[in-house]
Amino acid sequence: MHDLETLNTGGYASTTHLKLTCPLPSGLPPAILTLGATLTHLDLSGTGLSSLPSEFGTSLPNLRILFLSSNNFSTFPSVLAQCPSLEMIAFRSNRMTSIPEGSLPTKTLRWLILTDNQISTLPEDLGKCEKLEKCMLAGNQLSSLPESMATGCKNLALLRLSANRFETLPEWLFDLSKLAFLSFAGNPCLEKQTAAATAKAGTRFDLEKIEWKNLEMQETLGEGASGVISRGLWKQSAEYAEEVAIKVFKGGVTSDGAPRDEMAAVLAAGFHEGLITVLGKVVGHPDEVAEGAAAAEAEKEKKFRGGIVMQLIPEYYAALGLPPSFDTCSRDCFPEDASLSAAEALGMLTGIAGAAAHLHQRGIAHGDLYAHNILASKADRHALLGDFGAATIYGTDEEVYAGMEKLEVLAFAHLLEDVLGLIMREKEKKSTTQTPEAETAIVVAADAAPPAFRDSSELTEEEEEAIVQGLERLQKQCADPQVHSRPLFEDIAVELEDLVGFRGMMRIPIPNLS
User: Which of 41, 47, 110, 378 is least buried, going by the fewest C-beta atoms within 10 A?
Assistant: First the structure.
């Protein structure tokens, strides 16, 4: 974080990143425009700005990333079209109402954030943004998309349309070959599906209603835009209490959508070994309000909007990946030392594919099927799909949304590609640490007397290579540019299970090969 006084006295003359949080009642400080030779990242969120000077674009030719969230821009500044290097623009929570034609930097824009505004129409030249990968539009007043996007936004990978006014979605949306992460919960077109899924959730399984007074909140485990997850105790009697995780949802629109829609999807998902188990729904919270005007006010003020009690995941489970960076945009990152054996990867992928199949059989798209939303245990070869913030209950009866699953299959293709990279890292580690004698010993032992149950350390190189080839074939199928030619998750899960069984992993007995 930087300060205005140092800026005005030339103290940041060669900086590449600048962030100010102080109020700027006089508008953009002129000193910022003198940083054009080096400035690439500028964050002026929460400073009260409502306009930019006409020379902004020409003065900052190297600016790549611009944050102007939580300000007072009612109109998207047309001057940004003159920024020759601008790739990312964020105008979250500005009460913005309009985006004039010709205001977007169409040749360079990759990432656009317009969450939580009052925008009712988008400019046709959005379709000229051929490099656009990520477009965040949740929490506006949109009821349509520019037709130009159908042919122009060829690289669009992630689109957030939740909490808008769509009565229907354009059919071409489900034909975009690179779109993998789509959410549109909280729109009029899904009211029937959401209501039906929510009602069915109460009858599909015995969901406990857990009194708030019987919960003891402990330390915070994590906090996101939609709420806070804490470790806690569920006191079921005077003698017994269970360790649990408690998520308290708050109001307000997140970059993915509304917390109420996330909670509805979590409850509608039901039980699966690849999902974090929901034990019950919180009732009797002191800030709990019924639906209606009071609930709308609670959502606006970001107050309590419900809670769930979940199984507490063991601490040895860890996120499989890291969220995308500015550079990777729509693809996950991974620690340099991260790696997986073929056996570990196959066990995790099989579980996640099964979880995704389970969700889509119930008409639910996860919307954010990324490695960073997967908790994994290498020792157990097990993974759990979490974070339903971008989930959409699209239903099973509407033919227009039948393409949702095959869009999400592309997200799984990306996951497969990432995991294959982690397998390659593991193989490289082995090649640098394992002696030729050790390799020979493993092969001989496996050939001489194969055990009934085998772990990854006992697989031969040929067996590991067969697994990798199988995953590579599946990845190509899931990434087919023809969206409707991609397999369904049910078929993906079967193919992975066949690989698991054939290779004798996950404690599945195998015959003696000698």
Answer: 41
* Distance between CA atoms of residues 424 and 419, nearest Å: 9
**Parallel, antiparallel, or unpaired for β 374-377 and 382-385?**
antiparallel
Which two three-digit tokens encode residue 85? 């290097």
Q: How far apart are CA 456 and CA 462, in angstroms?
A: 12
pLDDT digits (tens, 9 = 90+) for 16-73: 999 999 999 999 999 999 999 999 999 999 999 999 999 999 999 999 999 999 999 9
3-state SS, 41-101, equals EEECCCCCCCCCCCCHHHHCCCCCEEECCCCCCCECCHHHHHCCCCCEEECCCCCCCECCC
Cβ-in-10-Å burial (0-12, 13-18, 19+) of 221 comes to: middle
* Other C-beta atoms lying within 10 Å of the C-beta of residue 429: 13
**Longest CA span, the chain:** 82
Beta carbons of 52 and 29 less than 8 angstroms apart: no
Q: Does residue 247 have a known ligand-binding role?
A: yes
Torsion, CA 269, CA 365, CA 349, CA 318, rounded to 10? -70
pLDDT at 248 over 70: yes
Strand partners, 437: none
pTM: 0.89
